[in-house]
Design brief:
The protein is α/β, with parallel strands linked by helices. 46% of the residues lie in helices and 13% in strands.
Length: 225
């Protein structure tokens, strides 16, 4: 039986693109804010790769976001007035409309927690901002590594004193679910077809034989019973 649900957050639970573009537009009004947001997010995977591959010790995503902001600002030829405040925009991301009520329904009889590459501090502040009713904060920082390394999923299971087959990973990203399933977890796919904007071309549908495919978090709660 599934005792706990752990969630990808950026994209699955929150609309990072529109939220970051809103914050960028407020401080850099002469730019295409969505282009800047996309470029900033594009530095996410490369910056974590060095850590996953052992070329750099663990660095929190808060610090990687700040480093990546400097890279992107230089590329766009702009000076960010208050880099620390804009970096903290990742703590001010709006949940998708179904997320908060869906999490509340899921929380009635199961543990719910993020399993994000975001730090504990980032996930805590994001939960306060968006009203995400987590039971606890799990993910990369307790593993000192980044998804899709199996250690991240397994550290979350271990923290809950549950075996991997008692835990379900929920994500809008097929690669996240492939990695979680390889680590022995159950899997649930919820599509977010506009995460990357109107021309998104990947993760539009389930690409694996996931345990559950749901249209939103309310539907996930219904399917779990």
């Amino acid at each position: 039986m599934v005792e706990a649900l752990i969630f990808d957050v950026f994209g699955t639970c929150v609309d990072w693109r529109s939220s970051i573009a809103r914050e960028v537009a407020a401080v850099l009004p002469d730019l295409d804010a969505f282009d800047f947001a996309d470029a900033w997010r594009a530095e996410y995977e490369p910056s974590m790769a060095a850590i996953r591959e052992g070329g750099r010790g663990y660095v929190s995503l808060d610090d990687l976001h700040r480093e990546n902001l400097e890279v992107v600002a230089t590329r766009f030829g702009v000076t960010v007035p208050n880099p620390a405040d804009l970096t903290a925009a990742w703590e001010r991301l709006d949940p998708w409309p179904d997320v908060v009520p869906g999490l509340q329904a899921l929380k009635h009889n199961r543990i719910i927690a993020p399993c994000s590459n975001g730090s504990i501090a980032l996930m805590t502040r994001l939960a306060k901002y968006g009203g995400l009713p987590w039971d606890c904060i799990l993910g990369a920082e307790i593993a000192r590594d980044y998804k899709p390394k199996p250690e991240v999923y397994l550290a979350s299971c271990a923290a809950l004193r549950l075996s991997p087959d008692q835990v379900m990973m929920v994500a809008a990203h097929n690669d996240d679910l492939y990695a979680a399933r390889q680590a022995g977890l159950k899997s649930a796919f919820v599509a977010r077809p506009t995460e990357h904007g109107p021309f998104q071309s990947h993760d539009l549908r389930a690409e694996g034989n996931w345990d559950i495919v749901a249209k939103d978090f309310a539907n996930l709660a219904d399917k779990l019973g």
